[in-house]
Design brief:
Length: 164
């Protein structure tokens, strides 16, 4: 009678694959534990505003934020920001900043303007991860800050939509 002969590397290979799988699972678990949350908070938005414009509180007014209050899809949300300013060399808008409170990055965009712009109006499209508040802040040539905010309800969030 002959005994079955197993290849000498069979057990070593299985052991190696098990150990490699354990190492990969451990590394993935450690990576997941160190990741930041995928969305900002209203406090993160306030911190981004302070970092961008300083500690002075923006006044409400002079800024008009035109954004739909209800959007079906958060992937491309149109918005327009206009600022009441004569846009003269003595009195003009120097920057318009956009912020939101629940996207991974609360600081959305910054637009630099000068008196030669003619009008203090910017239009763009942004991605919104969820229903949230959008804030626009205008910096004026005299150093004053003006703002406006709008709540936007998103029925299909931009970050969770399935892509075919």
């Amino acid at each position: 009678m002959s005994s079955p002969i197993s290849p000498p590397c069979g057990n070593n290979r299985r052991r190696f694959l098990l150990r490699a799988g354990e190492c990969a699972a451990g590394a993935a678990a450690a990576w997941l534990l160190t990741m930041r949350p995928c969305r900002a908070t209203p406090e993160d938005m306030q911190a981004a505003i302070r970092e961008t414009v300083g500690t002075a509180a923006p006044k409400i007014g002079r800024v008009s934020l035109d954004v739909p209050p209800l959007v079906e899809n958060g992937n491309t949300v149109p918005l327009t920001v206009s600022v009441d300013s004569p846009m003269t060399p003595q009195d003009h808008v120097t920057a318009i900043h956009l912020f939101n409170e629940k996207n991974p990055q609360p600081y959305v965009a910054s637009f630099r303007l000068g008196p030669r712009a003619g009008k203090a109006v910017v239009a763009t499209r942004i991605k919104l991860a969820d229903s949230q508040q959008v804030t626009a802040i205008a910096q004026m040539s005299d150093g004053s800050l003006w703002s406006s905010s709008a709540q936007v309800i998103v029925t299909i969030a931009a970050c969770v939509e399935d892509v075919p």
